[in-house]
Each structure stands twice: as C-alpha cells, then as structure tokens.
Amino acid sequence: MKRVEGLGLIDRRTPLNFSFDGKPYQGFAGDTLASALLANGQRIMGRSFKYHRPRSVWGAWFDDPNAIFDIELNGFHEPNCPAATTYLEEGMQARAVNATPNAHSDIKGLLDKFNRFMPAGFYYKTFMWPNWHLFEGFIRNMAGLGRVENVAKSGYISEQHHATCDVLVIGGGAAGLAAARVAAESGRSVILADDHREFGGGLFRQGGLVEGQTPVDWVTEQLSAVTAAGGLVMPLTTAIGVYDHNLVGLVEAHAFGQAPSLHRIRAEQIIMATGAIDRPVTFANNDRPGIIAVDGALEFLARYGVLVGKNIAILSNNSLATPAAEILRTAGAKVRLLDASTGPFTAHGGKSLNAISQGTERIPCDTILASGGLVPLVHLWRHAGGKLSWRADIAAFVPAKGPVGMQAIGAANGTFDLDVSLSEARGENLPKSTYTLRPIQPDLTAKGRQWIDFQHDVTLKDIELAARENYTSVEHLKRYTTLGMASDQGKTSNMAGLAAMATLQGKSIPETGTTTFRPPFVPVPFEVYRGARRGQYFNPLKRLVLEPELRAAGAAMAEYGGSLRPAWFGSGPHEITREAIMARRAAAIFDASTLGKIEVIGPDAAAFLNFIYYNTMATLKPGFIRYGFMLTERGAVYDDGVVARMGENRFIISCSSSHVDGVVARLEAWRQDGNNPDRVFIHDTTPNWPTVTVTGPKAREILESLDLQIDLAPEAFKHMTWREGRFEGAVARVSRVSFSGDTSFEISVPVATATALWQAALAAGKPLGAGPAGVEALSILRAEKGYLIIGKDTDGDTMPHDLGFSIPRQKKTADFVGDRSLHTENANRADRKQLVGLMAPPGAAALPTGAHLVEVTLGKRRSIGYVTSSYHSPTLGHPIALALIEGGAARMGEDLTVWHMGKQSAAQVTSPCFYDPEGAALHA
Amino acid sequence: MLLGSVVYITYLDASPLIVPHWQDHMTNKYSAFSLFRESLRGHKGWQPAWRSPKPQAEYDVVIIGGGGQGLATAYYLAKNNGIKRVAVLEKGWLGGGNTGRNTTTIRSNYFHPESVALYEFSLNLYENLSRELNYNVMFSQRGLMTLIHSEPDLEMANRTVNAMQLNGIDATIISRAEVQKRAPVLNFRDDARYPIHGAVWQGRAGTARHDAVAWGYARAADRLGVDIIQNCEVTGLLTEGGICKGVETNQGTIRAARVGSAVAGNSSVVADMAGYKLPIQSYALQAFVSEPLKPIMNTVALSPATGTYFCQSDKGGVVIGGALDRVPSYGQRGNLPMQEDVLSGLLEMAPALANVKLLRHWAGIVDVTPDSSPVIGPTPLPGFFLNGGWGTGGFKAIPAGGTIFAHLLATGTHHEISQPFDPSRFTSGRLVDEGAASGIAH
Amino acid sequence: MQRFPCPFCGPRDEREFHFAGEAGKIRPTPSAAQSDTDWATYLYEAQNPRGPSREIWVHTPCQEYFIMTRDTVSMEVLGTEQLRKETL
Fold first, then answer.
1. ipTM > 0.85?
2. How do residues B278-314 score in pLDDT, each as one tens digit?
3. Which of B11, B43, B299, B319 to mutate to test the interface with A (most CBs of A within 10 A)?
4. Which of A320, A464, A519, A876 has its CA 20 to 30 A from that of B223?
5. Which residues in chain C touch residue B326, judged by CB atoms under 8 angstroms apart?
6. CA dist list (Å): A874 to A573, A770, A787, A847, A921
7. pLDDT digits (tens, 9 = 90+) for A878-917
8. End-to-end CA distance of chain A, in Å?
9. Structural domains in chain A?
C-alpha cells in the first residue's frame, strides 16, 4: 500500500493529522479515513460483528461494510461512521467499533475459535432455561457497534430545503452528467446530485480518456454546461429514498459534527444514474484483510492515489478485469489474473495475506481484488415500486417496468460500457456492449469458511443450515441468518446470498427471488428527519394576546390544552387558594380568550345548530344564551359550551378552549357533507376576540366602572343573556354566563382594545379587593359548583344522561348528531358511570384524582368508578370531589370505599354541586 | 415408581412435542446439549423447522394467514383442542405480514377488565413460550414505561394504574428519579417541551423476537401434524348452500369443515370474499431501526405526548415506533410526514440520539376497528370465522389470540375471554375502547 | 410525501389534508327509526377497499371537504370531485 505520485484528486499540499485507535497518522485533504489509513500502510480497520475477525475495507465508498469508526473531533462524538465515506479532517480521532482494545489486537477475536458453536440462529435453539433474560445482558454487551455519548448535541440542527424541478438526475457519473446536460440544454430545470465531493462517478477509475478529454476535464465541461443552462449541481448529496408522488429525499453532507441537510425534491422526472458495485466472490477465507473489490481498489487509486498492494491477484469473472490489471500495473503493481468462474479458490493468511490457491497451485500475493460481476444499484427504483428483471448475460437484476416518471440509465440500468452509457443517457442509438461475464456460483464442496455477509459473519455454511432447516424463502434466509441486515443493508451480500441459496436448491437466482430494498439508501442521522421540529417548535403552543400583561401581573404560565395560560398569579401554587377565596369574596379577573367564538351564520343556521347540538337550539331567542352538548355520532359527549343567538340567522358558539379546532372541523364536515353549504357559514373568530371574564359578588361593580354603555342591573341583564356594548369606542360583547357559580360577565373585544380592557378591569377591581386569577383557581370554583370539564370529568363513553342531562334524549324529536346511539343496549345499561360528587369524612385530605371507588363482590375487589376532579375547597373549608361511578345517581348518600395505590379510605356520594345549590349567587 | 412418574410428567410439561419415529436419526429438540452435539458434526443433523407439504384435499380446519395469530391458532387447535387435520395457508412467507414487521412490545397494562383478561393471559403464555415451543422467542421482560409529562397526565396515570392494580396487573407509578435511573438516555432537561414527571411502569412487560414467535409456533404446529403451506394465496371462499365449505387457492380447492381468517392487513379483503363488510379501516404503521449501538437503553419507553416509543434490540439497534400514518393504505410502505413526526418525537424523548443513524424503516398494514380492540367471532357466513382488527397491538396477543381463536374454531362458540370482542358489540354499543377510557394506546 | 389536489387550492402537500371518511355514506333518516343493526352499519362498517377508493378529504387550510379517488396500494390519485354534487 502506498501513494502513487501524480494520481488522485487529493490535495497533497494540505496534510491533515488524525489518529486511529490511538495512533497518529497523516493524510491529505480529499482523503477519506479509509484511503488515508491505507496510504499509511494500516490495513486492519475493524472487527466483524459476531466472530471479531480482523477486517479491512472491501469497498471504497458506501459499499464497504467493514471499517466502521466512532469519531471524535472538537468534542463532538459520532458513532458508526463508515471509514470509506468519511472525509478526513484535521484532528479527527477515530476508533474501530466493536474491538477491545483496538482493531489490530481485539481480545474478543478469540470468539472466532468457537464459531462452530455459533451457527446462524444458534440463539433460537438455546438460552431458554431458566429464561432468556438471564443470558440477554451478556449477549447485548457482545452485540452492538458504536457507542453513544449521553449528551444532547447542541447546535446539531439539520437544515430542511424544498425544491421542485423538471428533471432530477441522481448520480453524477458519466451517464448522469450526460443526461443532466441534455435535459438542461433542452430548457428543462435540472438538479444533478452526486454523493461524492467530486462529480464523475466511475469515470476516474476507468483510466482512459473520455471523448478525447481527461476525466477531470470532461467532468468540468459537463458541469459547466449544466450550470450554464440553469441547472443546479449538488455534490456530497445522496438520494436516500424515493417516496410517493415523485418526492425524493436527498441528504447533503457537511463537515464532521455538522448535521446533514435534508432536501425534499419533487421532480417531474427522476433519472436514476446511481451506478453499480462489484459483487464479492464466494471462496474460502474471502473475508481476509487485503481482499478488496476490483472497483474499490481502482477508486482508491484514481481518487486518492493509493495503490492497495504490490503483488496483486485479480479474481474476477468479467471483462473489466483486464483493463483493471493494466491500470494497476501502470501504477507499479505486479498483477496476476485469475478466472473466478473456475473455482474453488482459497485465500491464505491472517491479518495479512500471503497467497491465494486453486487446487494445488499456490499463488503468492499480498492483495486479492475480487469481482463477481457488477450489480446495478436499483434501490431507489424499488423504493418507488418499480419492478426488476433478471438479465442472465450480466447475471444481475436490472430495472424493468418502471414507476411513472422514473428512468434508469448507465450502470444502474445494467449498461456498463462508457460509450453505451453515454448514448443511453443522451437518447442516442446504442453501440454494442463489450461487457461480458462468466457466471459463478459458490462451491459447496470447498473446504474452509466462505463469507457471504462480511460484517455479520454469515458464511456459506449458514446459508446451507438455513436451507437444511427450510428457511428458504429469501426473507426467511435473511432474517434467520441476518444476511444483508448489516450497516450496508445487503449491498455487498445480497447477490452472493441469493446465489448461494439458488445453488443449494438447484434453482436459478430469479427463481430464488430478490429481497426488499428499504430506505434510507445509506444510514442517515435521525436529526435529518427532524430539522426545526424541536423543543417548543415540536408542537407549538398557542399564545394569548394578553400574555405580556398577564406576565406583568405576575402570571405563572403553563400549558392547558395546547395554549399557554396563567396557572396562577404571584409567587407559587399557594396563590391558588388566595385567588379562589378572592373570587368568592370580591371578584376574580380571568383571561378567557381561549374560549371558542365560532360564528354560525345563514338562513339554515338555527336548524343546523339544532342538528349539531344535543340540546334544542332552534328555540333560542336573539339576545339569549343556552348551554349545550355536542355529541359524537356514537353518542358520547364531545364538547360542552354555550350558544349565543346574535340575530335571526346568526349564532356564536363558545366551546371549550382545547376543542376550537375540532369543533370547527366537525361543523364544517356536517355543513358541507349533508347540508346546503350556501345556506350556512362557519367562521371561527376565536383569535379575533380576546375575552376578559369578571366573576364574583363584586363583578357588576367592576363592570360599572368600565363604562360599557349597558344596563347592568340584574333584572335588565339576566344570567344567560348577552348584550353588545362599547369599550373605549370599540364593540364589546358582554355575555352573562358563569363557570364559577357566581355572577360572571365575559367581555370580548377586538384585539387592539384587549390590553386597555384588561388594565381597566384590574384597576377597577383593585379597590374592591378583586384581582387576576389563573386557571387553577377557576378549576376549583367550577368544581365547587359541580361544573364539569369534558375529557376530565367525562370519558369517551360518557353520554349526556350520565351527566344528568336526559331531557333531549327523551323529548327532542328533531334529528341530532349522536341521537340514535343514545338508545342502544349500551346506552341503556343500568351500570353506566354517572357523574356525582364525593365528600371525604370530616378532617380527611382531598381524595387523589384518579383514585377508584371499589366494591367487593365474591371476595374480589372491583372498580365501580373513579375520582375525576378533587380539590380542597377554601370557600367551603373541606375537600370536594367529582367522580364517575356506576349507577352513581342512585347512590346518593351511599358510603363507598376509595382505593388508591393499595390504600383504602372512605367517601360519601353527594350531588356534584357543593356551592350555592339554589343558584342565588349565580343569578344575583 | 413414584420418582419415575414425576420425571415423566415433568418431561411432558417441559416438552409438549411429539417426536415421530422417523426423525430419530436427526436432531429434533433444541437445547444447549443438542446445539453442542450438532456443532461437533457440522450442524448436519438439524431437521427442517417445518415441512413444505402439498395441500391435501380436505382438512378439519383451514386457517387463512400464516402470521403469528394464524400459526398460534393452528398450534393450539392441535394441542388444546385435539384437532390435527389443520392447514395454515400463507400467500407469501410465514410471518411476513405484521408479525415480522412490528416493534415487538408485549405488555398487559390495560384499563378495561376485558382487555386485561386478554392481554394478561397472553403475557402469561409468553412467559413460558420459549420452553413450551422449544424455540427461544427471546421474550425479554425488561419493563415498559409510559412517561408522565404533566399534572393532568399524572391524574390520568393514577386512574389507569389504580385500574390495572385492581385488575391484578403489576403496574406502578415511578418517580422522575426512578425513570432516570432506568433510562438515563431520556430527556431530563427542565426546558424540555415535554418534561418528565415520572412514568407508569409495568416491569413484566418487554419485547420478543418477532420472527422467532412465528417460527416457533410454525415448528411446533408442524410437529403436531399441521400442514403449513406457503405461497398459497386464497382467491375465494367455497360455499355450498350458504355455508363455507373451504377455500379456493392458487394451489387448488381445499375443503374444510371450518375456515378461519387471521389476515392482519387484509381482513376487509377476505371479508369481501365472504360477502360482508367489517368495521375496519386499514392504515400503514411504520417502524424504524438504527445502526447497532452498544447498550444505551434497557427498557421500553413510550411518550404519549410525542406519540413515540423506543427500545433497543438485543442486536443493538434502537427500535422506534409511533402513530399510524394518516392516509388509509394497503401500501406496506411508510410516508415521509409520519417519519418526520416519529423521529422528531424520538429526539424530543432522547436528544442524545440525534446523530445516531437510521438504518432502515418499513411499514405494515394494520386493521383498525372503531374501538381499536380486536374483532373475534363468527361471521354472517356460517363456517367462516374471523380473528382480526388487532390494529397496532396484535403481536403481543399472539398466544392468547391463538388460544381463543382455536377454541372458537374447534367449538363454534366463544372462549370467555373472546366473548367481549365479538363483532356484535358494534350493534349493542358495548365497545371496548381503551383510548376513550384512559387514553391508552394499543 | 404525497401531493393531493385540493379542488380549490390546487396540488398541496399531504400534511395539509385529513382523511374524513369514505364517500357515499349517507346518514340514515329519521335516525330514530333505524334499527340497531342499520345504525351500527352506518356508524362502523367500512368499504376499506384494496385498490381504488372513493374518500372524503378535507384540506385544512381552506376547510373545504371534497371527494378524492385514490388507489390505496399504489397511492396514485385518480381524481377529485366537489362534495356538494353528492349531497344536493
């Protein structure tokens, strides 16, 4: 192994220092870790997964399954980096994964001596007694590759880009470049992507001139032509998957430690020019360090100026061996050609190679280059649902019936000659192909282990075992032996594995089948799929218009149903009690802006709402407000809220804060599917009308000082009515509704007026002992009154009659959503869970929310319901709770056993309304 | 001779398999000893895990679908119900549907007693399954934690854990510190979008090797005489006088006294052959696995807020699952939006994994019922029975599903555990809806 | 990432859409007169076809519901129609 002067695309003026397994080395800018190590004479770069066999690179790019490193640079650690695709950077510290202490001398290498005891799937046959868990820890520690550091990667953020184009060319080799140029020059928008730093694909390794130019000059000319015609070229960019409707995911690599970018490109036409890779040859000891793919060795020479050996044997079955030998000889190696189709061969050596033998003939060599023929990279074709067909002349699967808008050219299409490839890319008549191949199949009688999957240590014997045990379907073979499930996802092993199974069964490869190709094409960091969907942007919260004012008033903000709202005001949760008492004694001022304000307008609006609501809404008079339930068609309560009638044809629905989007969607669904959408309109005005609620005995006094130009006298402005007033010149909608049980007014104003309203309300309240309150205090107030929160005090099966609202079920004649479901066997069950109140004995603490009520039948404890809300009521001076209990309405006064995490206590069933049951405060 | 009897009984208990005489020269039983012996003779003596028989003209029971549910049904029909003339027809390869595509979580932490009865029965069977089948299904009881992110989450966790404990399930609530001890890779930052308050913990929950479950049942069923026929696609049902009398397949007509459908992802298609509709919508459910890593996660963690769960396989891959794709599909491939959602969710849960690499992702087709509980029972076509609608949760129920479906096929009547899952519940309205009661996902 | 054609906004990313149910399912009226079985059929039974499927979708940004016919295996979009033809 040495550098050859004058060859390669590396920058020899820029040396880079790095270390591998603790030893310092030097490479050049443009090297990969693999090429730099080879140039330093360091061949052993890793250990296999199962037997810890010493391994070097097989391929020079993503087709290498052997050299996997954990890398650290400037404090950033990344596991499982392929040495062959990681470009070298100054200061990189690389370690081989799965080797202790290092790849060169791994103590677990001893395992290889016991390989006969660990055939494919051996773990299915043992470790059963006493149980698997006893052995699992040991196995798990043995398995796995890289190590993860448990630290968040700050700044590691994947940029996300979107683009469209007429033609996306994937692969910047000869065919891709030619196709991109033709497309761009014909006026179509073109994006050309290649995963290397330099475009050119396999051109550099093929040695000769391209259409009279050096490969570098030819590539430069094509790229200039593409960009001159408006095309976009993207180096270091790998297509990882083709998704539905011609969407391609491409990942653009950056410097080490920087997250790759994701490009989602929607193309009218996708041209797959992804090339081909060498299929390994199955022969004894074929996993030894120094056995390298023919095209891999040529890549190391052409791109990095590294000659992989001095005394090389080429073991190939195809016509590309001769030109390869010529190139290697020119670079200074001694080369001997061997015909892989004549078999059986054996490699000799351990950590270094010393010979290859065939029968009695022993050929000394330090390197073996192997090729069992080129295998087109058809992964993206299969992602898109394209079919494959078998071409016996090249012994490979090639793209057949294609997905709409996708085309394969060049080596990816089984076209391995440069001139044929260029003609194919340009849509010209095809010259005759010169690529020839002699079929090979593994020799089942050969002595010694023959590797099929290098990383996973799947040998021919494992395939034989799978066949013997009838795991013969390709997928069973793969899953039983783990063939093709390594980091390279079978790129190197699938064809050899299929050939082995075909031989064992006396079938052809196409009869044996082909495996599934699953994205991504190469492993990509999870971060690539995340981008901006992180932290607070993962699921953004809705924010209140008044948030600055609320914070200024000391609000502790918390998430409630997707909105950021004040939990309480002041220094801690103890303020909740203070706020609840203040609300009952004076008044509390809430930001209630999240309550829905959905307008329903049109000549059919009244009939529409009558259908949407469980309660009769058609009879509601303008100026009045009615409470009601929306049900699902299955009869369960979906939302509760109030409806205000603004006029003959205009209503406003005030639904629960967290249900606004859901209610709008269901209103629209019924409006458009089942009604005449020209006669009723839905308009969600929730964000346009911030709401300030004032509740408590002093609420009216506070409103009076706001000068709303409304007669606020109790007899003039009754509970469950609304009025339109003015505040500072703007419209103010004032509803007299209550979620606390005291006199309450909800004032909604346009956004521009909200701050002034909030400040005016606080100023008016202060001398009266009133002030701001948060959601937690309101939750206590409403529970004292027995007002429920849907989803907390109800579950997905709760029907309105379980909540004490059974009149429409019995009397309403018009159809409404969910109506028929209120009369099924389930709806009529006597043991339905009904909402009741619970009182703990005097002096007891509040019941835990989520505690169950139990009864003992036949010696077995059985749940009959659970506590849904529970608080200590500062106003009443004792705990209160709401619960859903089987047949609860008939249990008034009953003493029940409460059960929580193994502890029992007592409670008595009561009415859910603990505060002002006569409603004097509400109507005051 | 008392000692002899005890040994005999123990042997029977440990190994329900019958060894036919013609297999004497080959290695049939799996054990450390037989593995050692075969290792010394080049593993030449292992016999096929199952035969590849040609279909016979007639069986007592034909089961459509060679996934975990179908194979387990065949095994239990032979073992529990004494019905041995059984065929399992698989259109592709055994375990190639959802059994071989799922993320293998096994748990019984459910809310409704009906669900608990089913999934706890299944978990109990899993605990002894490797020995019962003489095939290591690698059931690893590493525990499952459902994260609690907020005060309302905790209240709901109280409700569900109390229900579980009352139903005899080993569920508890563990503290944030305990979560951190068990799964240090999770996100314990105070500014996390979904901070961790604690978790609902079921210690007996775990994972198993999905393929091994299918293969173990297939091998054990085969040993009991069941014919497992791969690449045998059912193209129609054979009916005579309005009664199902068998199936038409690409390998010819096969008659049967009773036919069972256990075709996750195709239940509606097979029901169409029987001429009726099911309360099922089919969706793709995706799964993801990373490159192998040294151990970093020793349990299964699920976050309801991110909709994501993950664990680490014995091989070292981080195995990730999430919610259904939102587009009804039979496509067996995932779509990008849900990949983004699930993997973003994963990184909210475990930010240290940001530069761990996704190795592959795939999808299975799940049949989702309105209450996300399975549909098991007779159908409008006499002689034809259904086991389906498992949604995303069929794998964990394979041993129980097999037992109760075998009972149904053998007797024509429900096992007490499957009674609540009869399709008649959609008419009575008595759904078994875990999501509605407690937000529990399947 | 699929691309669905909103009849009003044109082709858009699938993230903007929600599946709202199969097309052609009409709520039986008067609901009170329905048998348990007929009501259950309306509520729960699904065509769930493997292949071409006529479905109702909503484009959430514009809130319009429409009928889309798609192939549930190939994911090919075969056409869209306005919903109102169905209901009027």
1. yes
2. 999 999 999 999 999 999 999 999 999 999 999 999 9
3. B43
4. A464
5. 14, 18-19
6. 14, 17, 17, 15, 17
7. 999 999 999 999 999 999 999 999 999 999 999 999 999 9
8. 96
9. 2-106+281-371 (3.10.20.440), 160-277+375-426 (3.50.50.60), 441-512 (1.10.10.1100), 547-593+689-773 (3.30.1360.120), 598-687 (3.30.70.1400), 826-923 (2.40.30.110)
